Amino acid sequence: MLMVRSILFNLAFYANLILQMxxxxxxxxxxxxxxxFAVPRNWxxxxxxxxxxxxxxxxxxxxxxxxxxxxxxxxxxxQSFWDTFALLxxxxxxxxxxxxxxxxxxxxxxxxxKQRMIPVNRGARGKVMVEVMERTKQxxxxxxxxxxxxEGTRRPPGAVPExxxxxARIYRDIQVPVVPIAMHPGLFWPRRRSVRFPGHFKVRIxxxxxxxxxxxxxFETLKTTLEKASDDLLIETVExxxxxxxxPTAVTRLAELRAERA
Length: 262
Prior knowledge:
The protein is of the alpha/beta class. Helix content is 46%, strand content 14%. It has helices at residues 2-23, 25-30, 33-36, 38-55, 108-114, 127-140, 166-174, 215-240, 248-261; strands spanning 57-62, 72-76, 94-99, 118-120, 145-147, 178-183, 199-205. α7 (166-174) crosses α8 (215-240). This is Acyl-phosphate glycerol 3-phosphate acyltransferase.
């Protein structure tokens, strides 16, 4: 039954994506950029409904009051494709720095360009990265929320963290609050797997780290704060969902945490 529900959800998820992009294209490209954001926001909401209805997976968000007004940087843990769209209903005007190859996808790339996302060649250095930073500053000056995954790529729940220093440079240069976000959707929507698990989990939005720290201090503060919250949430999530099939990284980390707290 688990695999049947997973297959049904995956089919519905991609059908929903394609259908909405095609049907809503006239509206999306005829209205202003901010009005057009209603399309991806509602697409995200419909995905949550599909997860709840077909798979039986629900979630709740704690700490919405910690999101500051105006421009800020969201710094969530990144474990699953779910992370890339899940918070859109609660974001006013998000902007992503994403690999330029995504712009080459028919229709999807046009949607991305309409929202003025920032493409980058991952292998670029020097002048190209300076241009990306200037573009980021311009978008942030309009009060947008930049989404950056501090570890750069998806990591399985409980894995040894591998934070990248780039977020510290952006924090130094842009001078806006950074909002750490702890969550473990990878326990329910695992990376590189088609199975989807039922259950309930929390997204925990932490108090923002305000601008003004030197980059090294900020970097250590972000890592310490986010990993502590992630460890606490891992224990809570597993205890609330005893049926879950845990990846080896989560099993190992849970054993370490329980030993530390014994």
